[in-house]
């Protein structure tokens, strides 16, 4: 079956748009960041490139449209590289990426060839090779190196660089109209291969974002464990079974005051960033041996062991204060003066053990009561005696 170029480019537009939307929806549920913006712009320029090549095909390969298409293709890889550097906490070097894009566009406009379809091809292919290798190199550095998902980017970008290098070699030695070039590297074939690379990169970035989400919750202090929601009940029960007789299990529900309103007002990305700052504040203060997990609606559950009687209750209040203060300080410093508050609900087990599920429900109810009453913490003992602050 033969697929004409125009049909393949229409498919390219649809696939690029779908990958961008897919990645955007996934990223909307996670921590916002500059690397996110760079990667999103990469998908946008990929879509622009596909649309431009389609327009060039339908309008007789105008050199200006080809220049835009070539520049957009290079910009998509440059954005991936810039985002990877930002992910690793390094300088973006966006000006260097812009230089690649500018050289590609200018070379297409100034190319003296009589065939606009191939205007600026050499500069475009060289830029793609260099940027692909830079992405692969950056993916094996810094924070990305510790992420197994980064191997997807490394493999994909190395394959892309090799494929493009071989295409460039055949282009220079045999020309774009030679039999070998048409058989191996015709525009429809290259478009198909590019679709495979786009989908693979999208999958790699989503896996990388998934790893980042898990890292934010598992970046605990020594002695503090982060587990999944389903494992939390079992781990909390195991913590209670292993504690001494003069200690009690306490379940803490920590959440952001007015989280639902904040998410609706500022978007899910900002809400995710607030959650990350809250998790960091909680981890800094938890005593060794604690177990925690994150549940829906921006809530973090913690299981910890405390002394029986007034001493343990006082310790819970002393734990709540620095968590709330640390979160408030973090959001003020990192979110341009954005003000926020965290409140806690605590359920303390009795001498006759209460099911952990019940303690979780009591702690979440206590936290909701604290938010409604404007309190920072509300402690509920098994006998329903409360202490407020």
From TrEMBL:
Coiled-coil regions, chain positions: none
InterPro entries in UniProt: Rev_trsase/Diguanyl_cyclase (IPR043128)
Keywords per UniProt: Membrane, Transmembrane, Transmembrane helix
Residue stretches spanning the membrane: 6-25, 37-56, 62-81, 93-110, 122-139, 151-172, 192-211
Keyword S-adenosyl-L-methionine: no
Protein name: GGDEF domain-containing protein
Protein's organism: Plantibacter flavus
Phylogenetic classification of the source organism: Bacteria, Bacillati, Actinomycetota, Actinomycetes, Micrococcales
């Amino acid at each position: 079956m033969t697929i004409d170029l125009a049909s393949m480019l229409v498919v390219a537009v649809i696939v690029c748009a779908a990958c961008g939307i897919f990645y955007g929806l996934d990223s909307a549920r996670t921590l916002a960041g500059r690397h996110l913006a760079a990667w999103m712009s990469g998908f946008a320029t990929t879509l622009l490139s596909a649309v431009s090549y389609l327009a060039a095909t339908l309008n007789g390969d105008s050199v200006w449209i080809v220049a835009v298409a070539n520049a957009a293709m290079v910009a998509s890889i440059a954005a991936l590289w810039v985002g990877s550097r930002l992910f690793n906490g390094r300088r973006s070097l966006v000006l260097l990426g812009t230089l690649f894009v500018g050289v590609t566009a200018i070379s297409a406009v100034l190319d003296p060839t009589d065939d606009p379809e191939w205007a600026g091809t050499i500069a475009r292919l060289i830029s793609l090779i260099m940027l692909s290798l830079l992405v692969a190199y950056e993916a094996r550095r810094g924070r990305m190196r510790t992420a197994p998902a980064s191997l997807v980017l490394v493999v994909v970008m190395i394959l892309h660089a090799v494929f493009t290098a071989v295409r460039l070699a055949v282009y220079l030695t045999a020309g774009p109209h030679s039999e070998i070039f048409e058989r191996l590297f015709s525009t429809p074939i290259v478009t198909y291969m590019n679709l495979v690379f786009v989908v693979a990169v999208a999958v790699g970035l989503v896996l990388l974002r998934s790893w980042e989400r898990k890292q934010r919750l598992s970046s605990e202090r020594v002695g503090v464990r982060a587990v999944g929601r389903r494992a939390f009940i079992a781990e909390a029960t195991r913590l209670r079974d292993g504690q001494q007789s003069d200690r009690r299990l306490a379940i803490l529900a920590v959440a952001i005051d007015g989280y639902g309103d904040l998410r609706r007002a500022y978007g899910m990305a900002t809400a995710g960033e607030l959650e990350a700052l809250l998790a960091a504040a909680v981890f800094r203060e938890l005593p060794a041996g604690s177990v925690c997990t994150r549940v829906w609606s921006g809530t973090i559950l913690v299981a910890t062991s405390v002394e029986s009687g007034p001493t343990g209750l006082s310790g819970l209040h002393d734990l709540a204060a620095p968590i709330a203060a640390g979160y408030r300080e973090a959001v003020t410093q990192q979110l341009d003066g954005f003000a926020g508050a965290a409140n806690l609900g605590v359920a303390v087990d009795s001498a006759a053990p209460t099911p952990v599920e019940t303690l979780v429900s009591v702690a979440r109810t206590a936290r909701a009561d604290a938010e409604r009453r404007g309190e920072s913490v509300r402690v509920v003992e098994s006998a329903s005696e409360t202490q407020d602050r």
